[in-house]
Design a protein that fits this description.
The chain has one domain: Trna Endonuclease, Chain: A, domain 1. The chain has three helices and nine strands; from the N terminus they run αββββββαβββα. The strands form three sheets. The chain has a five-stranded mixed beta sheet with strand order 1-2-3-5-6.
Length: 133
C-alpha cells in the first residue's frame, strides 16, 4: 500500500469518531511529535501517535522507531490482507514494550508466516484508554 501511514491515521480517526470522541489531525508545523489530537468526554486534550505497518511485507519484525516523542497514546495499526488490527498503548506501556532496544518490534515470522508479536496482544482494540482519558 502506497500511503499506509495516512491510511492508519485516518482509520484511527474514524474508529474514535465512531466512539463519539472529538478528534482532529495534528498540525505538523507546531505539533510534530504526534498525528492526532483527541478530546474525549472528560475534556482533556490527548495526543495520539499512530504507527502503521503491513503484516505481510519484506520485513520480518516491522520495527517502529521514534516512540520516545511527546504524545499520550501510541496506536499501532497493522494492516493485513483480510483485516486491520489496532493496538492502543499509553506512552509508558509503549516504552516498556520496547524495553532496552532502540526499536519496538511489532511482528515476527513463525513457520514462514508473519504474525503480530505476543507483547502487543493485550493492547488490541483497547480504545477505552483514549475514550476514558
Amino acid at each position: 500500500m502506497k500511503y499506509v501511514g495516512k491510511y492508519g491515521e485516518y482509520r484511527v480517526l474514524a474508529c474514535l469518531l465512531e466512539q463519539n470522541v472529538e478528534i482532529y489531525p495534528a498540525i505538523k508545523t507546531n505539533q510534530p511529535d504526534f498525528d492526532l489530537t483527541a478530546i474525549p468526554a472528560s475534556g482533556k486534550i490527548v495526543r495520539i501517535q499512530v504507527k502503521t505497518t503491513e503484516l505481510s511485507n519484506k520485513s520480518t519484525n516491522n520495527a517502529i522507531k521514534c516512540i520516545d516523542k511527546q504524545y499520550d497514546f501510541l496506536v499501532i495499526v497493522i494492516v493485513d490482507k483480510n483485516k486491520t488490527r489496532f493496538f492502543v498503548m499509553t506512552k509508558s506501556e509503549a516504552l516498556a514494550a520496547k524495553g532496552d532496544g532502540k526499536l519496538l518490534s511489532t511482528t515476527k515470522q513463525q513457520k514462514k508466516e508473519s504474525q503480530v508479536k505476543d507483547i502487543l496482544l493485550p493492547y488490541e482494540d483497547k480504545w477505552e484508554k483514549i475514550v476514558n482519558a
